[in-house]
Amino acid sequence: MKAIHLTLALIVLVVAPAGAQEFLDTAGRWKSLTLPGGSSPQIAPRAMVALRGHVVIGREGRSVLVSRDSGETWRNTGGALPADLQTVWALAHPDTLNAPQRILGVAATGASGAQVRLIESTDGGDTWRDAGRLAELDVLFTVPTDTMRLYGPPAMLFVDNASGSGRTGFLYSAAGLFASTDNGATWSRRGSARAFRALAMRDEANGIAALGDYRTGTAISATPGGIAWTSDGGATWTQTYGFSDGGFYQHLTLKTFSSTQYRAFVPERFQNYMDWRLLRSSDAGRTWGDYRGRQARRPLYGVAFWRDTTDLHVVSDGAILQHAADGGELFYLLRDTAAGYWQTPLDLIPGYVTRAPIAATDGRYLYFTVPGNRAARWRMASIEPLSSVTVEVPVEGLSIRPNPVRSEGARIDLGARLAGAREIVVVDVLGRRRLAIDVPDGARSVRLDAVPLEPGRYVAIVGVGRAIARVPFVVVD
Q1: At which of 354, 379, 404 does a domain end?
Q2: How much is the pTM?
Q3: 297 and 415: one domain?
Q4: Which own/partner contact pairs does 72-80 have at CB distance under 8 Å and 24+ positions apart?
Q5: 54-90 per-position pLDDT tens digit
Q6: Using one digit for the tens of pLDDT, what is the confidence trace for 437-452?
C-alpha cells in the first residue's frame, strides 16, 4: 500500500503544472448513476440528503427520487407529494438516532410559486404529507429580486443538544432563521429577519452564520455582511469577520468540528471562483485566521464537505471534484467534466456550468446531481485519507480503557507523542464522524462518554501537527 501511495504522489508532481495538481482516478471511485426517466427530462434538482446509503433528491416538476442502495437503483415518489406542491427546496433528517426513515423538507407551489409549506415523510421518502404552512418564506418567491442568486434556497439542519438529550432544528434563508425544539413539529422565528447565506450549529445554542441584510422589494438586496457567532441559538449575533463585497458569497460553506474549532470555506467570485478564502477559528468564531488561496485548477463554485479538519472535498460546476488534504490550502483535481479531460455523461449537459451542484454525503460516498437528469457519486476513503497523514504514531501512543466500552464510559489516554492534541475524533466503521472530544490544554487523558454511541465498532483518531494515531474500540450494552 505504501508503494502505491508513493507512486501516485510522483504522478501528481510530474503531470501537474505549477500551482495545479491532478489525481488520476485509478481506484475506480467514480460512478455515473442512472436516474429514472432517461436523459431527456430537464428537471432541475433543488435538494438532496443522504444517510447510510439512503439518498433522496428533491426536484422541480413534482419529482422526488429515492434510492436505498447508494444510488444503484431509484424510484420517483414525487406523485406522493401534496397535490399543489411542485418543487422541493430543502431536505433534512431530524431524528436523534439519524434514522433515514423520517425526513422533513421545504416545498413550494411552483418554481416561482407564492406559497411555501413543510413536508414530512416517515417511510424514507416513499410517501409525503403536508406538515404546515411557512408563510414567512413566501418572500423568497414573490419579491422582484433574485433571492436565490444572492442567498441560495432555504436550507434545513438538525443538531444534537449539548445535554445529549434531543435535537434542535434550524431553517434558514434570505427570510431569516427559524428554529424547532420539538423535532421539527413546529417552527418559530429566531432573532430579527436577517438574511442567512450559510449556517453551522455546534448544538442548540452555539454556532456561526454568514449574514447579510435583505431589503424587500429593492433592486439591490445585498450588503457586505460577514460571519458572526451566536451563543443563544441565533437570537443574537456578533459579527467577527467582514466581507468586502456583499454579493455572490452564497456558495460559502461553514463547519463546526468541536466546541471551539470552526471553519469557513469561501470561493472568490472576482477570479471566476478560482481563488478562495479559508477561515479558521479555534475560539468558536470569535476570531478568524484568514488564508487566501490562489488559482485552483477549476472553479470552486459549489459546496464543500469536510470529513475532518484536514480532509476537504469541493463539488463545483456540476461534477468537478477537487480535494485538499491540508484543510483547504492546496487543492488537487480529482474529477473533471470539462472537454478534453475525463468524460462522463455529465459533460453533455448544456449550460450546467452556470449552476452550483446539488450534493450530499453519507460519509462513504459523495453524491451529486445536476439539471438534465444526471447524477454521479464518488467513493470517499473508508476511515481517513492517506494523503492527510504524514507520520503514523504507533497505537501505544493512544489507549482506551476499558475496551470494550460500556455505558459508564471509558478513559482515553494520550501518549507523550500526542501531548498538545486539541481534539479526539470518533468515527464508525464507515468512516462517519460520530463524536468530537475536546482535549483541555495540558491534559494527558479525557473521558469517553459512550451514551451517544450505539453498540458496535469505532475508531478514535487524534492528531498533532502532521502526526496522527488511531485505536479501535467496541461499544457494548
Answers
A1: 379
A2: 0.73
A3: no
A4: 72/33, 74/33, 74/34, 74/35, 74/36, 75/36, 75/126, 76/36, 76/37, 77/125, 77/126, 77/127, 77/128, 80/126, 80/127, 80/128
A5: 999 999 889 999 999 999 999 999 999 998 899 899 9
A6: 888 887 888 999 888 8
